[in-house]
Amino acid sequence: MEHHHEHHHAVKINSLNKAFIIGISLNLLFVLTEFLAGFYFNSLGLLSDAGHNLSDVASLVLAMLAFRLAKSPSNDRFTYGYKKSTVLVSLLNAVILLLAVGMILYESIEKLLTPQAVDGNAIAWVAGIGVFVNGFTAWLFLKDKDRDLNVKGAYLHMLADALVSVGVVFSGIVIEYTGWFLIDPIIGLVIGAVIIYSTWGLLRDSIRLSLDGVPAEKNVKIVEQTIASVEGVENVHHLHIWAISTTETALTAHVILKDMQQMEKIKSIIKHELLHFDIQHATIEFECADSYCEEKICGHL
Questions:
Q1: What is the mean pLDDT of each run of 10 residues along the chain (301 residues)?
Q2: Does 280 map to a domain?
Q3: Domain count for the chain
Q4: Which of 183, 210, 237 is the last residue of a domain?
Q5: Residue 127: its pLDDT value, please?
Q6: Mind listing the pLDDT tens digit for each residue in 107-157?
Q7: Does one domain contain both 28 and 114?
Q8: What is the pLDDT of residue 301?
Q9: Strand 233-243 vs strand 249-257: parallel, antiparallel, or unpaired?
Q10: CATH code at position 276
Q11: Is the pTM above the cut of 0.90?
């Protein structure tokens, strides 16, 4: 069973590593294409979008770096290794994504105030390539986006870019056949609002994990009730749950036992139950009913 789990974990790691490498390579190639097309067609829109996509490449590189750091062994100074880097990078990526949206909204408002003539056909074709590149890269992270906040950040970046590219394709076609240049900034504002809405959850969860808050999918009350329901447990207090990384969760708790002789048996049962909540690192302090607990007397810390 353990061998199967390690094999599955290794396959997942190799799969995600390959996804990051493919995504970074494709997006770098697309950025180069956009820059060249922007200079050739004298399109400020394409040049600015290329700059935006370059920031997404940087985000993918950061996500892959954190992903690899999380696999590094622990040492005397970092006893949990560098697993927390995945949380920090997910927070950084959420901030970068919101800054990128800010740029899109700023450019859209500026174009609304001062409309500019552009080559709709050329823009539509280049953006069409962007839909494929960004959409395919987002698909690479689709199956793991709900398992890892860091991967979710990479997924949202690519999905946001795919949405922007779809909008640009649509506006390019409208401009080519109607000459209505205002469609470009209007679609930019709509897409910006959609991206802000989809990114808010990533930002909220990243901040929570950075502050050692309880991961969103974990319910402290239910975990506490589960431990308390184990036969031989009288009470549970000072229960703390926090994220070591975007995929690993730790727990500490004081557990009062009716019979200290059953400690090892109860510990094994509790840790098995915690695995159902995907809590892999549990540290439990056992106490007898009449033992002195300084924290219990002084209150929750």
A1: 44 69 91 82 67 78 85 87 89 85 83 76 84 91 83 84 82 84 81 80 90 92 95 93 91 92 93 93 88 50 40
A2: yes
A3: 2
A4: 210
A5: 82
A6: 888 878 887 776 778 778 888 888 899 899 999 888 888 888 888 888 888
A7: yes
A8: 40
A9: antiparallel
A10: 3.30.70.1350
A11: no
> What is the domain extent for residue 229?
220-298
How far CA 281 is from CA of 115, 161, 271, in Å, comes to: 57, 37, 9
Three-state SS letters, the chain: CHHHHHHHHHHHHHHHHHHHHHHHHHHHHHHHHHHHHHHHHCCHHHHHHHHHHHHHHHHHHHHHHHHHHCCCCCCCCCCCCCCCHHHHHHHHHHHHHHHHHHHHHHHHHHHHHCCCCCCHHHHHHHHHHHHHHHHHHHHHHHCCCCCCHHHHHHHHHHHHHHHHHHHHHHHHHHHHHHCCCCHHHHHHHHHHHHHHHHHHHHHHHHHHHHCCCCCCCCCHHHHHHHHHCCCCEEEEEEEEEEECCCCCEEEEEEEEECCHHHHHHHHHHHHHHHHCCCCCEEEEEEEECCCCCHHHHHCCC
Residues 274 and 140 in one domain: no
Question: Any residues with CB less than 8 A from the CB of 62 and at least 6 apart, and which?
Answer: 89, 92, 93
